[in-house]
């Protein structure tokens, strides 16, 4: 086969065969097809899309570019959850232990933060000693021992995606729904899952700003999962303001632990519960949503979910004392500064993206992949949209290490907060459910 001919065909909106797509992905992975050739192909896909048949073949070729895990010896149903990323989105950290405590095995492979959205791996690595870099054998051992593993993608799993993702980031082709969907789903399908629940964020702080765009991505990923006999469901959830009260890394771990103690913020609990109900449903453990919710609440109330998280922390080298004493174990920034209400009224706007960028400027996130994260810095949110506030009342607390970074963060937050005379209507957090 010839890469140039295949690029030209995709450029001209012609279909590629399954064999041609398999050759392209295989040849790109081994270096036969060059970066500049795959860049041209990615742009052709960005402009012209992939047909459903092409997308299934593309995902399959990505999936089989490396190792595919086999957990058939683990007797429990195997389910994972994936979020498209948001500000304050630490849902995976309390959710996974809750669902695992109900009898589901969760081989959760997560990613790192880039830009204004945080990454689960970065949050977990704020726990002293915790390692997310596990080889396949240790990954399996932790899953078998704990019913849950929280790790990153191994070098041998879907190597084509690692190469292509970096290329897309550098060539302006990130926002292609077929390429996003195949990237996410190839990694999830490599986990040998029985079910998958997707959290597709929508709003100012999300990758997808409009519901129609998010719905298209969700439907595309659900269709891919179901085509591989992995029961897949997606929820569209709101991301106009940050989720929970903490944005950062160590502070989000502390908030996650608080949730598992029954003390977390209501919005975080609502989204976590909604996704947990779906995970128990696709696992086949419970078909009644209310009964599923009761099982999840019981995992919190009897402490079993917190115990599962503690076992995973210990198994992955972390300081298990974080479960009992988050403040004493997690790193803390040395300085803090408050953003106060300029007038009395109702909080009508708290721009999630600006808060996320401000946290990144403090050092809690990365503008470039090589940037180093400071796990101790972050932002605490004292009031959410709809709250009544008084002039001079603290709205945000910024925890910082370097004054220059604080100045940058405060500059970003200019205009992020809106206060009006009337309380805004309450908005829904879970916007839509997509199963086909």
Structure report:
Strand 4 (195-202), helix 10 (211-227) and strand 5 (231-238) form a beta-alpha-beta unit. It is globular and about 70 Å long. The mean pLDDT is 94. The two termini are 35 Å apart. A four-stranded mixed beta sheet has the order 1-4-5-13, with helices on both faces. It folds into three domains: 3-48, Up-down Bundle (Transferase, Pyrimidine Nucleoside Phosphorylase, Chain A, domain 3), CATH 1.20.970; 79-156 and 173-326, Pyrimidine Nucleoside Phosphorylase, Chain A, domain 2 (3-Layer(aba) Sandwich); 331-420, Pyrimidine nucleoside phosphorylase-like, C-terminal domain (Aldehyde Oxidoreductase, domain 3, Alpha-Beta Complex), CATH 3.90.1170. With 436 residues, the chain is of the alpha/beta class. It has helices at 3-11, 18-30, 35-48, 52-63, 92-101, 120-124, 136-146, 159-171, 177-189, 211-227, 250-260, 266-282, 289-301, 304-315, 326-329, 352-364, 403-413, and strands spanning 79-83, 106-109, 148-151, 195-202, 231-238, 246-248, 335-340, 345-350, 378-381, 388-389, 394-400, 417-420, 430-434.
Topology (elements, then pairings):
Blueprint: H1 3-11, H2 18-30, H3 35-48, H4 52-63, E1 79-83, H5 92-101, E2 106-109, H6 120-124, H7 136-146, E3 148-151, H8 159-171, H9 177-189, E4 195-202, H10 211-227, E5 231-238, E6 246-248, H11 250-260, H12 266-282, H13 289-301, H14 304-315, H15 326-329, E7 335-340, E8 345-350, H16 352-364, E9 378-381, E10 388-389, E11 394-400, H17 403-413, E12 417-420, E13 430-434
Parallel strand pairs: 1-4, 2-3, 4-5
Antiparallel strand pairs: 5-13, 6-9, 7-11, 8-10, 8-12, 9-11
Helix pairs in contact: 1-3, 2-4, 3-8, 4-9, 5-12, 5-14, 9-10, 12-13, 16-17
């Amino acid at each position: 086969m010839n890469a140039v001919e295949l690029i030209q065909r995709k450029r001209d909106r012609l279909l590629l065969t399954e064999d041609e797509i398999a050759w392209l992905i295989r040849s790109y992975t081994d270096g036969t097809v060059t970066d500049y050739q795959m860049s041209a192909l990615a742009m052709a896909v960005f402009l012209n899309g992939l047909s459903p048949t092409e997308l299934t073949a593309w995902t399959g070729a990505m999936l089989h570019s490396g190792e595919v895990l086999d957990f058939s010896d683990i007797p429990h149903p195997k389910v994972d959850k994936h979020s498209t990323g948001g500000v304050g989105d630490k849902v995976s950290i309390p959710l996974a232990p809750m669902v695992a405590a109900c009898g589901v095995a969760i081989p959760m492979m997560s990613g790192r933060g880039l830009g204004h959205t945080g990454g689960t791996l970065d949050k977990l690595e704020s726990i002293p000693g915790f390692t997310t870099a596990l080889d396949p054998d240790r990954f399996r051992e932790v899953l078998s021992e704990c019913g849950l593993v929280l790790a990153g993608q191994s070098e041998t799993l879907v190597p084509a995606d690692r190469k292509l993702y970096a290329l897309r980031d550098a060539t302006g082709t990130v926002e292609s729904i077929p390429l996003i969907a195949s990237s996410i789903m190839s990694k999830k399908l490599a986990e040998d899952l029985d079910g998958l629940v997707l959290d597709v964020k929508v709003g100012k702080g999300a990758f997808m700003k409009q519901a129609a765009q998010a719905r298209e991505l969700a439907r595309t990923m659900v269709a891919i999962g179901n085509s591989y006999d992995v029961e897949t469901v997606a929820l569209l959830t709101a991301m106009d303001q940050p989720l929970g009260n903490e944005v950062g890394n160590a502070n989000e771990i502390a908030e996650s632990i608080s949730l598992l103690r029954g003390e977390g913020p209501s919005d975080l609990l609502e989204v976590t519960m909604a996704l947990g109900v779906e995970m128990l449903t696709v696992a086949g453990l419970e078909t009644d949503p209310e009964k599923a919710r009761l099982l999840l609440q019981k995992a919190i109330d009897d402490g079993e979910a917190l115990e599962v998280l503690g076992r995973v922390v210990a198994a992955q080298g972390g300081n298990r004392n974080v479960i009992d004493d988050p403040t004493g174990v997690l790193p803390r920034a040395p300085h803090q500064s408050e953003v106060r209400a300029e007038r009395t009224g109702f909080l009508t706007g708290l721009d999630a993206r600006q808060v996320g960028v401000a946290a990144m400027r403090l050092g809690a996130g990365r503008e470039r992949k090589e940037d180093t994260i400071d796990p101790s810095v972050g932002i605490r949110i004292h009031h959410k949209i709809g709250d009544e506030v008084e002039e001079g009342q603290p709205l945000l607390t910024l925890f910082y290490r370097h004054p220059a970074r604080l100045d940058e963060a405060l500059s970003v937050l200019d205009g992020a907060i809106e206060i009006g005379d009337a309380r805004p209507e309450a908005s829904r957090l879970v916007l839509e459910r997509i199963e086909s």
